[in-house]
Recover the amino acids of this structure.
């Protein structure tokens, strides 16, 4: 891409990162963090943010070095080559975005149910989950441009809403609720931070847009660091307001829609309703954007031969098969796994992928001019975070561990079978055609 086509400035790049992080995640996982960390919820978000900030350094260095074709897939391929490891991780990335869509859809349903009676039928939640996935899929099939055009406005609405909750709620904070005596034990606080880590994963979208950013050597690192720091600040302040203004019993009863409850002390029932509507809008738009991105990730992986070739078919520049496959698997995951398990699986998936990205930066440190100490610390921190999450989950939710390991096994088995039986033959045929 030529320099004249680089239209995204620093503020635009920061907006991409903030929009990717402040999607549906905070609406989905805030209550989960409170249920584990209690009065230390803000500390849990701070710890998760620290791992994200360390990882953003690796993304910054790698994005500048590979700005013409940036992104997680490219970084891992350049560090480890096209092999079983990189191929499995690329498939795992695609699967992790399916989990993210499922997380947002489940959060959409949780906030949507607040508009119905307390004794709503069992099928309502599944109907709302399915609606939250199917409607964005239809939008993606009809008009890809609508997705990108609508995101900017929705990001602005989300930020204004969060700032409103913070500014209005800070005056109602009761310091006693935040006292260290109300905190969980240190290991549980760390585990809570890692479970809700999925709320930070969207900053890597800046790397995907590297080729479109002006002055990338300067603006890519600044955008990555600034977006993560701003979101850490937002999440920590939201946590302080939530825990400091609402009784924990009430928060735990409304765990799946805790952010709406956090608006009530300052803004009353009107505030609850406004936040619930905004949560529906935010999670819906996040699903919209993630389906858009994952269908195109599937297209890119299909072009490189790492996913079935049917996913690289385009109809008027729209990856129809990719959207349909993404929709189908997201529906299956969202309607069969509960919110807590989805959050755990999503966070574990991205911690694993980010650990590989950090190790990629460490391995390529000379080529990308990266600090070996920072990239090593980032690598160790992300892998330690992953093992902390898995160890805690092993005792508290073994089913989530089984599902996560199943995802890894699926990615490895798929890569082994598809790589040997299909892709190798496809590449040989492409090479033979090129010679002729």
């Amino acid at each position: 891409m030529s320099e004249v086509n680089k239209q995204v400035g620093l503020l635009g790049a920061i907006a991409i990162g903030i929009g990717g992080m402040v999607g549906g995640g905070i609406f989905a996982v805030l209550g989960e963090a409170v249920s584990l960390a209690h009065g230390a919820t803000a500390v849990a978000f701070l710890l998760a943010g620290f791992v994200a900030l360390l990882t953003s350094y690796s993304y910054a260095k790698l994005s500048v070095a590979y700005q013409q074709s940036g992104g997680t897939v490219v970084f891992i391929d350049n560090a480890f080559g096209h092999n079983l490891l990189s191929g499995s991780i690329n498939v795992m990335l695609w699967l992790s975005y399916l989990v993210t869509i499922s997380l947002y859809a489940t959060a959409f349903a949780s906030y949507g149910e607040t508009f119905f009676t307390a004794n709503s039928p069992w099928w309502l939640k599944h109907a709302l989950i399915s609606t939250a996935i199917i409607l964005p899929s239809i939008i993606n099939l009809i008009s890809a441009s609508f997705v990108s055009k609508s995101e900017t406005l929705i990001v602005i609405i989300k930020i204004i809403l969060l700032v409103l909750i913070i500014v209005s709620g800070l005056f109602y904070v009761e310091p006693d609720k935040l006292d260290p005596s109300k905190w969980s034990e240190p290991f549980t606080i760390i585990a809570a931070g890692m479970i809700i880590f999925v709320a930070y994963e969207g900053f890597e979208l800046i790397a995907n847009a590297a080729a479109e950013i002006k002055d990338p050597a300067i603006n890519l690192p600044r955008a990555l660091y600034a977006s993560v720091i701003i979101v850490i600040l937002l999440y920590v302040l939201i946590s302080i307001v939530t825990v400091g203004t609402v009784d924990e019993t009430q928060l735990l009863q409304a765990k799946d829609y805790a952010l709406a409850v956090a608006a009530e002390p300052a803004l009353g029932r009107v505030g609850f309703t406004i936040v619930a509507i905004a949560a529906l809008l935010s999670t819906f738009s996040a699903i919209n954007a993630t389906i858009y991105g994952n269908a195109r990730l599937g297209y890119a992986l299909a072009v490189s031969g790492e996913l079935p070739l049917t996913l690289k078919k385009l109809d008027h520049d729209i990856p129809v098969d990719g959207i349909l496959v993404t929709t189908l698997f997201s529906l299956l995951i969202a309607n069969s796994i509960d919110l807590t398990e989805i959050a755990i699986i999503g966070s574990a998936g991205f911690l694993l992928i980010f650990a590989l990205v950090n190790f990629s930066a460490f391995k390529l440190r000379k080529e990308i001019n990266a600090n070996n100490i920072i990239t090593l610390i980032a690598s160790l921190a992300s892998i330690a975070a992953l093992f902390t999450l898995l160890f805690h989950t092993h005792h508290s939710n073994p089913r989530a561990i089984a599902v996560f390991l199943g995802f890894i096994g699926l990615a490895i088995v798929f890569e082994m079978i598809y790589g040997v039986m299909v892709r190798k033959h496809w590449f040989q045929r492409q090479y033979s055609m090129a010679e002729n």
